[in-house]
Amino acid sequence: MAYRFLSSRIVPPSNRLSRRFIFIFTISLSFMYLCYSILFCSGTIMPNQRLEEHRCVRLKNMGSKKLLQKSHYCTISAKARVISDETRAVRLLNLTGNQSKHSAFQKTQDVLDHKQSNNSNSPKYGNKKLPNALIVGVKKGGTRAVLEFIRIHPDVRALGTEPHFFDRNYDKGLDWYRGLMPRTLDSQITMEKTPSYFVTREAPRRISNMSRETKLIVVVRNPVTRAISDYTQTLSKKPDIPSFEELAFKNRSQGMVDTSWNAIRIGMYILHLENWLQYFRLSQIHFVSGERLITDPAGEMGRMQDFLGLKRIITDKHFYFNRTKGFPCLKKPESSSQPRCLGKSKGRTHVQIDQEVIEQLREFYRPFNVKFFEMVGHDFRWD
């Protein structure tokens, strides 16, 4: 009897399996819920960009009150992401003290611009604005180096190519020109460089029509050295051109210099400057010494940052002197095994010119140089 009673109280095997399954299933659900809760809490601290964008899109069809909430939320979210990008770039700048072709911030912005161009529905970071500052000259003075150096600054966004808007493409209009510019935040300066502007007669008036408050940067260099560098570049592309002496003089025996040759005409700085001063104040023009840019790049860039109203972030720690090329390069970033130097077309060995020809050109340029020094209030010591 006792055996039968105990047997009737024992749970059948099928029920035991069911209860075991329910117990395991309950534990699994609890564990999944715990994991989800942890991930969700992490997401509130550092929100996922796709989740935020999804929220913004989902709120579009709600009522006016919700729409206002959406507008505020999405605006704050977008601004927060931009600030985060800026912060990461500046931190990288401070940690490394050097950059490749672009600064860390420049790279961040370039990636954002690329993403936005591929996705018309993506949020826009900053706006395309007409330039606040222009590097207007001079050819073979060191303008490319100045552009690459100033682009290290996180408060500067610059167009990498030369748009030639104010000399060749003016008929395309300001909207076309603005469309070429990188996106900038309100705190940033938009820049571009086209060295031929300085010697283009119409450029000052056209730039003034765009904005009379535009800041202008002119990189000047000993006009004799500049002319030889200009010729060397042309010779590398057209090996069959006449000699430097033939192009530089109408009559060398009489010392008659051919001022119609562009390589000579560019170096007559005072004549071009007088044209610019009809439209801009001298205080709006900053002159960078091409020679000091080689011997003291940090000093020249420091003065340029002051002129642009920027904090002095570009300093000695960003440069080293490349003895092979003969000019300073940017130190390599941690992400690269190579330093950032200008291209092969920069730092060419100049064509050897007879010393007597050089002396004749120095005599020709001397009165132009003296007037230029007096006008800008600085002696560049080219004699």
Structure description:
This protein has a domain at 127-222 and 263-342: Rossmann fold (3-Layer(aba) Sandwich), CATH 3.40.50. The protein contains 15 helices and eleven strands. The chain is α/β, with parallel strands linked by helices and 383 residues long. The chain starts with a helix and ends in a 7-residue tail after the last helix. α12 runs parallel beside α15 (355-376). Residues 1-11, 42-109 and 114-120 have low confidence and may be disordered. The radius of gyration is 32 Å and the shape is elongated.
Q: CATH first level of one domain: which class?
A: Alpha Beta
Calculate Rg over CA atoms.
Answer: 32 Å
Order of neighbouring strands in the sheet with most strands: 3-5-2-6-9
* Count of helical regions: 15
Level-2 CATH architecture of one domain:
3-Layer(aba) Sandwich
C-alpha geometry: elongated
Order of helices and strands: HHHHHEEHEHEEHEHHEEHHEHHEEH
- Sheet having the most strands: 5 strands, parallel
Query: How does the helix and strand content classify structurally?
Result: alpha/beta
Helical content, roughly? 40-55%
Distance between the terminal alpha carbons, to the nearest Å?
128 Å
Quote the beta fraction: 5-15%
What name does the CATH topology of one domain carry? Rossmann fold
Q: Quick one: how many beta strands?
A: 11
CATH superfamily of one domain: P-loop containing nucleotide triphosphate hydrolases
What number is the mean pLDDT? Answer: 79
Family: Belongs to the sulfotransferase 1 family.
EC number: 2.8.2.-
Subcellular location: Endomembrane system; Golgi apparatus membrane
InterPro entries: NST/OST, P-loop_NTPase, Sulfotransferase_dom
